Amino acid sequence: MSQNSINARITLYKITECGLYEKGGKSPVLGNLSVFLEDLEKWVHIKDKTLKETCTYASLDDEELNKTFCYDIKKDVNGNYLLITWNKNSSSNNAVATVSGSSKVGEATIQTNTHKPDDIPGFPTYFWIMPNKNRYATLTFDYAQNGRQAVEKYLREFFIKWSRFVVSVTDENGIEEIKCWEDPNNVGKKYPLLFSHFETNLVVNSGKIDFLLNHWKDIRKVYQHNEMSIVDIVKLPLLTRGVSKLLGMNASTSKKSGIKFKLEADVNFNNQSELKELINEWEKKKDPTKWEDIGFSLIGESQKVIWLSESRANNDFDCPLTKEQGGIFKTDELVEWLTGITSSILKLDEKLEE
User: Fold this and answer.
1) Tens-digit pLDDT profile for residues 1-17
2) So which domain of life are we looking at (predicted)?
3) pTM of the entire structure?
C-alpha cells in the first residue's frame, strides 16, 4: 500500500430476494433493484429534500435512535450505484459522550462534545450496488462498521413506501396514506397488500468448505478465537510481569495489541450432515464476529487450522483517494474508482460468470 492510499476492505454479497411480494409469494410481482435505486436517487433530490428527511423508517423503541439517512447516491456509466448512508449515533442533550478506554471500571470520566440541535452525530457507510449482477459490496475503511443490516432495512422500507409502485393520498393532517400498489405501466392491476423484500447472503466460495465436507471423517478439533483491541494501552511498567506474560505483552507492544481468546474442542462428527449444518448456520449470520468464526483441524495436522472466514468473498483494496474534512470521501471520486475496480470486486465470487 502506498503512503497516499487508504485500505478498503470490500466484502461481496449476493442479492437473493428483491422487490414487492404477495404474501407467501416466491417471486416479486412489482419492481427490481435498478428501478428501486433509480426511484431512490430521484426521491432524495425531490423538492429540495433535506438529509434529515431521507430516513425511511422509525424505530419502535425510539423514533430518534438508530436512524439511517441517505448521505448521497450516484449512478455510474454501467448502471451501478454508490450509496452512502449516514448512521445516527445516540446523543444526550445535543452532546456526544465519550470515555477513555484505558480508564478503570467505575472510574471513567465522561467527556461530552456538544453539537447544534440540527446536527446529526453519526458515521458514514458505503455500498457499491451492481443490479445487473445481483450483487452488492460493502466498503469499510479504518475498521469502520459496514452498516449492512441498516441499509437493507432502509431499502426495504423505501421500496414499500416511496417507490413508483405506491399509490397514496395525503390526508387532512398531511399524513401520507398508502391505498395500494400498482405498476404505472399497467394501472388495471392493483395490489391491496404487498410485502417488501431485500434479502442477501454473504458470498462464500466453496473451495475450503468442499475440502472440509470431503474430509469430515478426519476432522478432530473445532476452534473459535477472538481478539479484543486495546487502542490506548496502559503503561507497561505498571503491569506485573505475570499479567504482561498472560496478555502476551512486552516492552515493544504496539497500540494495536489486544487480549486474545481461543477455544478448542475435540470432535468426531457422526456424519457429513452434522458438519454441513454447522457450516450452514455460520453462513446465515448477517455479520459474523471474529469469535463466531469457526476453524477445523484434521487428524495429524493440528497445526493447520482451516477457518470458515477464509472462504468469504472479501479482499483489501488500495484506495488512492483522500477523505475530506469530516472523514468522508467525495462521491464522484469514489464512483470513478469503484467503476474501475468493479471487475475485480466481482471476481471475489468464484461462481459468478462475467
Assistant:
1) 556 789 999 999 999 99
2) Bacteria
3) 0.80
